[in-house]
């Protein structure tokens, strides 16, 4: 129930446009979604527009796309040995020095991220939590009740939610009234299934190795490209040199009256 309510709240906080946004790992992915003709208009038969048109549902209006490699990733520490790769964020403190009562956690850390998406998703080795979810939620705090949330106001930095529907979008921006029922919901926190203890560690290591392998392949491709480039410029220089020598021999043949081809 807790996860269900939190899922509803978070989806309401983000709004429909964001909930329906697309996520690309790379900028190349974004470019593939939409292309433009010479005049700068969208080519309706390419990318996502083409796909949508082909199933009879042409795209109208705008849609959001998050590009993981372009998002500014969270730069701080992570909770040690956490298979969920939660961000090690400082728990809020009231001016009195105490932690606010009813504080349940930071939204960014309360979302269950599938382990395939928690590590090494982007070229820089970032996962979904420190890129997409940190971008969306920043340090949004979650409280048990509206009362708890309002009492904690002095230490709310990037907004707060309460499970009973309280919402502060950002410092000084309160969202009052009744909850809207969004048709799109955040996936329910399915919890971490019971798996052997070292399962996540092993999975993480495999993922890291795969990631390193990808980087190595990229490095090799780059090296190969440079090698090819050097070879090509070598060929060009050789060509020039041979031409120069040939001209030179023709010239000396003229000067010394030697028949061409005997040098
Ligand atoms: C639009 O995209 C299609 C499919 O990729 C392509 O065949 C066509 O040449 C493109 N048109 C323009 C004007 O770029």
How would you describe this structure to a colleague?
With 263 residues, this protein is α/β, with parallel strands linked by helices. Among the domains are: 2-15 and 76-189, Alpha-Beta Plaits; 22-63, no CATH class. Helices cover 43% and strands 9% of the residues. The chain contains nine helices and seven strands. The chain has helices at residues 2-14, 16-19, 27-33, 47-54, 107-110, 115-118, 129-137, 146-151, 199-255, and strands at residues 22-24, 65-67, 103-106, 141-143, 160-162, 167-170, 173-175. β4 (141-143), α8 (146-151) and β5 (160-162) form a beta-alpha-beta unit. It binds 2-acetamido-2-deoxy-beta-D-glucopyranose. 2-acetamido-2-deoxy-beta-D-glucopyranose (NAG) binds at residues 37, 43, 45-46. Residues 37, 43, 45-46 line the site of 2-acetamido-2-deoxy-beta-D-glucopyranose (NAG). This is Protein DEFECTIVE IN MERISTEM SILENCING 3.
DSSP, total strands: 7
Could you report the average pLDDT, rounded to the nearest whole number? 86
Strand content: 5-15%
Helix content: 40-55%
CATH class of the domain at 2-15 and 76-189: Alpha Beta
| Alpha-beta content class | alpha/beta
Largest sheet: 5 strands, mixed
**Tertiary shape:** elongated
Spatial order of strands in the largest sheet = 3-4-5-6-7
Q: What's the CATH architecture name of the domain at 2-15 and 76-189?
A: 2-Layer Sandwich
Order of helices and strands: HHEHHEEHHHEHEEEH
> How many H/I helices?
9
CATH topology descriptor of the domain at 2-15 and 76-189? Alpha-Beta Plaits
Bound molecules: 2-acetamido-2-deoxy-beta-D-glucopyranose
Rg for CA atoms? 29 Å
- C-alpha termini separation: 93 Å
Regions with pLDDT < 50 over 5+ consecutive residues?
none
Protein name: Protein DEFECTIVE IN MERISTEM SILENCING 3
Keywords: Signal
């Amino acid at each position: 129930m807790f996860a269900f309510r939190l899922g509803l709240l978070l989806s309401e906080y983000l709004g429909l446009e964001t909930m329906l946004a697309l996520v690309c790992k790379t900028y190349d992915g974004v470019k593939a979604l939409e292309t433009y003709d010479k005049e700068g208009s969208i080519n309706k038969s390419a990318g996502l527009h083409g796909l949508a048109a082909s199933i009879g549902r042409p795209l109208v209006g705008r849609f959001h796309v998050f590009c993981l490699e372009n998002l500014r990733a969270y730069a701080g520490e992570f909770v040690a040995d956490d298979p969920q790769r939660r961000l090690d964020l400082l728990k809020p403190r009231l001016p009195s020095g105490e932690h606010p009562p009813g504080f349940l956690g930071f939204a960014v850390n309360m979302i269950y991220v599938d382990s395939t998406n928690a590590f090494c998703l982007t070229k820089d080795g970032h996962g979904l939590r420190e890129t997409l979810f940190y971008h969306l939620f920043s340090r949004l705090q979650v409280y048990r009740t509206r009362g708890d949330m309002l009492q904690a106001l002095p230490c709310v930095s990037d907004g707060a939610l309460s499970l009973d529907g309280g919402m502060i979008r950002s410092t000084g921006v309160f969202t009052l009234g009744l909850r809207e029922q969004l048709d799109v919901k955040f996936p329910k926190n399915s919890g971490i299934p019971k798996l052997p203890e070292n399962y996540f560690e092993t999975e993480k290591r495999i993922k890291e190795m795969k990631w390193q392998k990808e980087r190595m392949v990229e490095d090799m491709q780059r090296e190969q490209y440079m090698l090819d480039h050097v070879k090509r410029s070598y060929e060009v220089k050789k060509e020039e040199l041979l031409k120069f020598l040939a001209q030179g021999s023709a010239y000396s043949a003229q000067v010394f009256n030697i028949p061409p081809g005997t040098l």
